[in-house]
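Page 42, continued from yesterday. The earlier attempt failed because a stray header line got pasted into the input along with the sequence. Redoing it now with the clean sequence only.
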Amino acid sequence: MKRLIGICLFFFALLPSVAGAEGDAGKDYVGLVSPQMDTHRSRWFYFASACRPFGMVSLSPDTDTEHSWGSGYLYGSRYIRCFSHIHNWQMSGVAVMPTVGEFKGNRGMDAYRSAYTHDGEIVKPGYHKVYLTDYDVVAELTSTTRVGFHRYTYPESDCSYLLFDTGAFLAHGPTAYSEVWKISDTEIAGWEIMERTGRRPKNCPVYFYACVSKPMKEFVPWSEGKVISNRGRLERVSGKDAGAALRFDTSDNEVVLLKVAISYVSVEQAKRNMQAELVHWDFDRVRTESFDEWNRWLSRIEVKGGTHEQRVRFYTDLWHALLGRHILSDADGKYLDMTGDFPRIRQIPLDAEGRPLYNHYNFDAWWGSHWSLNILWSMAYPQVMSGFCNTMVDMYRNGGLIPRGPSGGNYTYVMIGDPAVSFFAAAYNKGIRDYDVKAAYEGLRKNAFQGGIRDHAGYEHNPGAHSGGMKYYEERGYVPDGRPDVEGMHTTGASMTLEYAYQDWCLAQMAKALGHEGDYGLFMKRSRNYRNLWNPETGYMQPRGVDGNWLPGFDPLELTEKGGFCESNSAIYSHYVPHDMKGLIELYGGCRKYTERLNSSFEKSEPYGFFRSPETRQGNWTDYGNQPGTGMAHLFSYAGAPWLTQKWVRKVKAAYSDVSPYGGYRDDEDQGQMGALGVLMAMGLFEVDGGCAVRPTYDITSPLFDEVVIHLDDRYYKGKTFRILTRNNSAENMYIQKAFLNGKPWNCFQFYHETFAQGGELVLELGSAPNRRWGTGKLE
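This time it went through. Structure tokens are written below.
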């Protein structure tokens, strides 16, 4: 039974505003999203149904609760084990489960799980409804930014429970310790300590405050697998394996509502988050407001035309680009800083009305985001980019390093290099500058030398280790493989060298824009270090040993790290020079030879769906399932063959067009990066250099849609919209015949960001045969 106890306005000041920049938010973009796409082999942070854009709460059913991969909501799994509130990079917590009948909470999820059915299941951005067949319970989930809202419809029973399995093993590791206590007959609170992992090096707390709409009949605690039977007298329990249940008497089809607010700071802060965002009990209102908010965000980019499946894939990709990374700070701007020797509570600066100026975020590495999120966010969601820049600058002030993937308020050293530099360079050079630019540049420059974040290989947490190889890079211009005494993962020197060279170029662009001419010269010189890996005898980038010689046994298709490359191979990384395509093409012997070589790679991998295949190996020439190869189709334009970019971008999009639970990204979606890539390819805009040049440019290819409208944020850009129109668009008509930019004939495959920021219109006439002359003109 619902009990309406009060209504107040939501306080969503901390979500980046989309006011004044969205399109037709009245359209049902939410209905075009397919959240269950590719959930047959989910990753813990891949799926979060009842979640707001970047929401701190990412509430959804969990069918599998062990391991970072193959966990969370898996479409083919038979059982739901719990509904948990955090699906984040190396973070999890607050597992809840409704049960009926025999009490099994103390026996763990294997005992109290329930079978469920996809019949009648509803999954939308911000809402999930599913039937638990073992308990005859209908479960519904929605949320605000920091509060999970549950609606459970129970059968008649005097043994209806809500389990809070605070000591559960969730995803990345066990819960080190937890505590939960009863506040009143309708309130409980608690905290959990997420045990450190190989990626997140410190234990991390999460606190919760929960309210139910119906007074409980009994508070049932357990510890170490045993129910503590004292007829309700014990109102607090703690330990390594602890939890508590709330027991109710329910009539048939009785609704029990549950609100769970979280914080990484304290229980009191969790309660304040609830007071700021959800003081009433109107579940349908919150669900509607969640849909409305998602529609506002998704309507930033409107598309018309194309097939229904293409529109579903587009908005599902866009949803992922706005979903995977999550807010860490509270409604009043407090956040947990774990970069030092002990935890500290920090405060985000407030505006004149006492509201935080931005959010703090938890996120996986920016590795590869120069071809995805950096471009998309800077175009359509610049304030989101600003929030992440501010987060990283604060972490630099707090802990001494700009991060490449923080979790739980601390560094993880995930992946390699310093991909934050391309993020900042793109932001700054596109005019997104509302953060401490001086501190940002100072931190990025520090990262580019020994002792900076580049010097730490993946998940290397020993303060004395320097497996990133910056000593070698500074002295030799490359990082050798086979180095002694390396720690961590992803210690492949060839990948490091190529990525460091690109990152040097990005830093040089920022240095030039800031007037640091000496640094500009230094980093531009270092950006040519990619040439130190080019072997003219084989025509590939190859790893070198500590002795300076090429490593023996070279195989360009080798995908394991013994090949010298991180999560990829030489056949793909040999094209990884996004900042100097002219120089790379010269190494290959000129435009014709480069085009033939690149085209051959796509032809050989097309039968394998442009996805690596360790079994056959012949598909390993390209890979659109992982970051290092996701710019390859756009490289033809730089060799004078834009028509081949148009062809292969369309073919890659067709190969990755599935929207079913058993298709989608094929590999690691990485918190919205592959979603953002899909959006860009479908819109027909890209930036091979990641948008980091002092004067950024967009690369043009053929969109999937008749019309694309990008609504610009007037806090950063002068224009209102940038519109892309196509004529004669179809699956066969993939080739650009003519183009007009703001009414002017346009024969260059690029145009400047400053033109985009002013607003305008790009018209593309398409045909079934390539126009090999279009796009070959110079950028004016």
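Notes: The first strand starts at residue 50 and ends at 51.
Reminder to self: strip header lines before submitting.
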